[in-house]
Amino acid sequence: MPAAVLGFVGLAAFVHYNDERRAVPKGQGSDCVNVKGPIIGGPFTLVNTENKVVTEKDFLGNWVLLYFGYTSSPDIGPEQLKLITKALNTLESKENLKVLPMFVTLDPQRDNPPHLRAYLEEFESRIVGLTGPVGAIRQMAQEYRVYFRKVEEEGDDYLVETSHNMYLINPNMEVVKCFGVEYNAEELSEAIGKELKRTSS
């Protein structure tokens, strides 16, 4: 095989490896921050659905459940938002524990503030929707070790392949737990409640 071809194959494998290394494996959501390694999370500067610039400092003092998705997701995205809404409503009604839901789009080119607001209001008006420049979204995704990539469809249409993880963030804006798609609403509610009670005690 020509050296140029071998070099290209090696580069492609290296890029793929790095993308996979940033992803949190499905089924290991509850363990993704309980292992030694780089800290998950970090500062960000994005735009909310009212077109106002916000940073992580604006959410200090709140427990936050953060989800990365996009409004054009055909199945998993809507299911996860319904699950989040049900879990947090259950947590508040049964345990009187409040957690702020936050949705960061991985498709800022299509998800502008008005579109994002209209989409999220279909699920829960309390969900904080964030978008912003492509570079800012990509940087935040890397800080949270979220894998995503654009998958081209017919014409100009495309989907976004992503790892679909949720992050529980404490009032100091530090990630304390990560949840994968294997959780149902009841399990998610119980796991979050357990973490909040453990921390408060």
Strand content: 15-25%
Number of domains: 1
Q: What level of helicity do the residues show?
A: 25-40%
Distance between the termini: 63 Å
Strand arrangement within the widest β-sheet reads: 2-1-5-4-3-8-9
According to CATH, the homologous superfamily is: Glutaredoxin
CATH class: Alpha Beta
Structure notes:
The chain is α+β, with helices and mostly antiparallel strands and 201 residues long. It has one domain (3-200): Glutaredoxin, CATH 3.40.30. It is built from five helices and nine strands; from the N terminus they run H-E-E-E-H-E-H-E-H-E-E-E-E-H. The chain has helices at 3-22, 76-95, 113-121, 134-143, 185-200; strands spanning 45-48, 53-55, 64-69, 100-105, 128-131, 148-152, 158-162, 166-169, 175-179. Helix 2 (76-95) crosses helix 5 (185-200). The longest helix is centred in the N-terminal third of the chain and has 20 residues, at 3-22. The radius of gyration is 18 Å and the shape is globular. It starts with a helix and ends with a helix. The model is unreliable at 3-31 (pLDDT under 50). InterPro entries: SCO1/SenC, Thioredoxin-like_sf. It holds the Pfam family SCO1-SenC. This is Thioredoxin domain-containing protein. Belongs to the SCO1/2 family.
What's the helix and strand layout?
Elements: H1 3-22, E1 45-48, E2 53-55, E3 64-69, H2 76-95, E4 100-105, H3 113-121, E5 128-131, H4 134-143, E6 148-152, E7 158-162, E8 166-169, E9 175-179, H5 185-200
Helix pairs in contact: 2-5
What's this, in brief?
The protein has helices at 3-22, 76-95, 113-121, 134-143, 185-200, and strands at residues 45-48, 53-55, 64-69, 100-105, 128-131, 148-152, 158-162, 166-169, 175-179. It has 201 residues and is an alpha+beta fold.
